[in-house]
Amino acid sequence: MAEASDIAKRRIVYALEGDIEVSVRQEIPYRTTETETLTFDLYRPASAATPLPVVVFVIGFSDVGTRTFVGCNAKDMQCYVSWANLMATSGLAAVTYTTTAPTTDVHDLLHHLRREQDALGIDASSLGLWACSGNVPNALGLLMSEDRISGAPLCVTGSCWIWTARLPLPMPPRHFVSPTPARDDQSPICLMCRC
């Protein structure tokens, strides 16, 4: 595999205050065939003792192409690593994963998470999606085909629509969040917002 490009090494700028330790279980298989093993990484607050709601970072492109363009799988890009860490420091579990067939692999991943939720320490009945940019269409398709997803922030070209269908929150089904304008080349790709 080629060395990771500069964009693959960039982390998000936003961080939470405090010293919450994050536990990361890496390369957990979710589907194995004769030709490949697809894996995921699970991020959790290290001190969490109860099953946690889980956020899946939906990928819309094959890692074959991602490795070609940025030198690593999408789940290993530092923006995804730091977003997943941010979720875990917020008290949620987070999942990043490898994919070769994005529209079908994510269904296999969700099936695995639901089946293994006790062993993973997650509450798969409180499952949310997170997607940005060109990954959003895959997440939208998943939202339309899965009836057991709690909600999803979907971020496209610097704007963020938070889809909250089936969430017991006092907000409309679609909520627009305006991002902070970019200040320099170290600005975050997308800001996480609490609405």
Estimated share of beta-strand residues: 25-35%
Rg, nearest Å: 16 Å
**Which class of secondary structure composition applies to the elements?**
alpha/beta
Largest sheet: 8 strands, mixed
How do the helices and strands follow one another from N- to C-terminus?
Answer: EEEHHEHHEHEEE
Task: Explain what the structure shows.
With 195 residues, this protein is an alpha/beta fold. Helix content is 25%, strand content 29%. The protein is built from 5 helices and 8 strands; from the N terminus they run E-E-E-H-H-E-H-H-E-H-E-E-E. Strands 1-2-4-3-5-6-7-8 form an 8-stranded mixed β-sheet, with helices on both faces. The termini are far apart.
Task: Give the SSE layout.
Blueprint: E1 22-32, E2 37-45, E3 52-57, H1 63-70, H2 78-89, E4 93-97, H3 102-115, H4 117-120, E5 122-132, H5 136-145, E6 152-156, E7 159-163, E8 174-177
Parallel strand pairs: 3-4, 3-5, 5-6
Antiparallel strand pairs: 1-2, 2-4, 6-7, 7-8
Gist?
This protein has 195 residues and is an alpha/beta fold.
Which properties best describe this structure?
single chain, globular, 195 residues, 5 helices, alpha/beta, 8-stranded mixed beta sheet, Rossmann fold
